[in-house]
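Help needed: design a sequence for this.
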């Protein structure tokens, strides 16, 4: 059974890959991708039910943090009911989602900035070399370029320095990260195709 799973996974991967280069495999590729989308949707539903069961069990057993589990379940069911009544494309539904998502993303970005500064200071304390100094200087520079500073709007900082940092340095770093993610995804996909990694076998 394990050998069959490996053969099916490798063959499916090669067929999907071949569909991008050989027109003969395009229809089979579309079918396999649609199957994968359906399986991903089913896995998402299973994950939501598992989330409900885990947090409901916490509330039932009166474990620590049960209040937060209750808030999570209330918010989950409220968002689900509002989505059914209003629909995902309704203006009020989008406004509600933005009222939750945007503050959450802002908080995560603030935590990321603080974590970067803290990590760079600790790195500099443990290993005081040139790369540690560059890392700390880069983190502070990006933080200053993104923060609201007490200077006039028509200043050299806002007119020249900040846009250059945001659109040259930050964009270059983002492109480097995306290239690294793309290369890592490519290598992982190739390892799955040749059977070196088998994430479909489970734990």
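Sure. Designed sequence:
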């Amino acid at each position: 059974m394990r050998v069959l799973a490996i053969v099916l996974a490798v063959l499916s991967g090669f067929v999907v890959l071949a569909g991008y280069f050989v027109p003969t495999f395009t229809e089979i590729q579309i079918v396999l991708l649609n199957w994968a989308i359906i399986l991903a949707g089913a896995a998402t539903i299973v994950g939501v039910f598992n989330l409900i069961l885990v947090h409901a069990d916490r509330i039932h057993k009166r474990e620590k943090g049960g209040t937060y589990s209750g808030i999570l379940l209330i918010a989950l069911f409220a968002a689900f009911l509002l989505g059914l009544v209003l629909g995902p494309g309704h203006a009020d539904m989008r406004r509600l989602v933005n009222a939750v998502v945007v503050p959450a993303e802002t908080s995560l970005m603030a935590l990321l900035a603080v974590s970067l500064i803290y990590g760079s200071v600790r790195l500099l304390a443990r290993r005081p070399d040139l790369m540690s100094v560059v890392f700390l200087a880069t983190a502070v520079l990006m933080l200053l370029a993104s923060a609201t500073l007490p200077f006039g709007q028509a200043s050299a900082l806002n007119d020249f320095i900040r846009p250059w940092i945001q659109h040259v340095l930050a964009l270059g770093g983002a492109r480097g990260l995306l290239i690294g993610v793309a290369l890592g995804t490519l290598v992982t996909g190739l390892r799955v195709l040749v059977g070196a990694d088998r994430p479909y076998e489970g734990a």
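The chain is about 80% helix and 0% strand.
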